[in-house]
Amino acid sequence: MAHPDHRLVSEAATAYARVSRLLDPLRLHVWEEMGITFPQLRILFLVRRDPGTDLRTLAQRLDVGTSAASQQVDRLVDRGLLLRSEDPDDRRRIQLALTEKGGQAVESISSASREYLHTLFERFTAEQLHNLISAFDAVVTAAAESPVPHLTREHQPTA
Fold first, then answer.
1. Domains and CATH numbers, the chain
2. Predicted model pTM
3. Is-contact 58 47, C-beta < 8 A?
4. How many whole angstroms separate alpha carbon 67 and alpha carbon 101?
5. Separation of alpha carbons 31 and 17, rounded Å
6. Chain Cα centroid distance, residue 129
7. What is the SS3 assignment for 82?
8. Which neighbouring-strand residues pair with 96?
9. What sign results for the dihedral spanned by CA atoms 44, 157, 146, 27?
10. What are the pLDDT digits (tens) for 20-42?
11. Taking a C-beta distance cutoff of 8 angstroms, is the pair 34, 157 a contact?
């Protein structure tokens, strides 16, 4: 397969970054309305992806110390967004899970983004949408084959 020239690759990366940033103001608005900080949001999404994860594993995934992760978890527990529970197989291990309110918070952020994208994509022709889907699929496939260097295997995107 012939590789495109560097300029074209740079243009594609810039275009992708511009599109990615479109959702930032919307997401920030929803986070602010909920009073959730970005680190707390990351915790909620990580726990949603891996219910039952423990504090030590969460801290490793966030690349922070256990104490810093614990402080953020405490705030989320106090706000009724996360639950802590003992692991029945290892009482020293504290498992984390979203509460119903925490699940609703994560879903409201995701749904706000989906609704906005739906509004944008309704303006596209069927051909443009098929091309966009193909392009997104190609990005996901390439990401699975070329993970972000600092991520461990268990954190790499999947196709």
1. 21-147 (1.10.10.10)
2. 0.71
3. yes
4. 24
5. 21
6. 23
7. strand
8. 84
9. negative
10. 888 888 878 878 888 888 889 99
11. no
